[in-house]
Amino acid sequence: MKQSIYHQLHLTSLEVALPQLLQEASTQQWTYETLLQRALTTELEGREQKAIARRLKAARLPSAKTLEGFDFSFQPSLSERRLRELADLSFVRTCTNIVLLGPPGTGKTHLSVALANRALTAGHSVLFTTLSELAHALSTASHPGLVRSRLRHYITPSVLVIDEVGYTTLSQEQARYFFELVTARYEHGSIILTSNTSFASWGTLLGDDVLATALLDRLLHHAEVIAINGRSYRMKERQMDRAGVPAPAEATLSATGARAAGVGASA
Question: What keywords tag this UniProt record (predicted)?
């Protein structure tokens, strides 16, 4: 069956909206120029919504978190102003990395996804992964060509979110691939990374102190390091559900690791 002229011209959004537009044009006595402008605007808006949907699907974000949904009052050590400034996405334009350090449950993933969502809405490509998933995908590639293909998958997006750094100790091969990825993105794309481990412990994480130093040198050269020294949201919610009282304070992550790496971590 022959495709309609709308499909041939890729005007699929206009095809759906046209009957309603024609009815409004007749009712409100639009000029031909007004009708044409409304028709073209409808098609452009439809294309943008489809593009956002494609980018969102490709990003594999675990949730639809926003900065507006983050409870800054629960984490007083964290500067809301600083996060709002990052949300203007200048870090994407300058290929600056963002490193969020803190104990489990303090909102690191929420903030990383919120910033990634801002980037998506603004038209940037995004990909979310955990370090464990990333390491497994690269180390299980069956031949060098597949390794290069998978590396390109993580190198290409404007913003790469690497969550849960510190939960998995990498093999020598995985550590080398992680280093290659950070090196390839250095000054070419932004990384948003979350970790519950101070930089001083990355030698253990990678199984190689020299490699860890070289990786951190590239990761932190152009980076915003944000330490979240606070309580766990999950523990708070669990305590409130069970007893209706706030959760006790948890041990906080020391910022000494950041200082050891030569970066002033601040909140």
Answer: ATP-binding, Nucleotide-binding
In whole angstroms, give the CA distance from residue 80 to residue 72: 6
What's the order of all strands across the beta sheet hosting 159-165?
126-130, 159-165, 190-195, 97-101, 223-227
Task: Write down the pTM of the prediction.
Answer: 0.77
Q: What is the tens place of the pLDDT at every residue in 25-60?
A: 999 999 999 999 999 999 999 988 888 888 889 899
Calculate the dihedral angle through the C-alpha atoms of 107, 109, 112, 115, rounding to the nearest 10 degrees: -70
Each residue of 247-266: b (16+ CB within 10 Å) or e? beebeebebebbeebebebe
CB neighbours (10 Å) of residue 243?
Answer: 9
Q: Are residues 108 and 29 in the same domain?
A: no
Q: Are 216 and 179 in contact (CB under 8 A)?
A: no
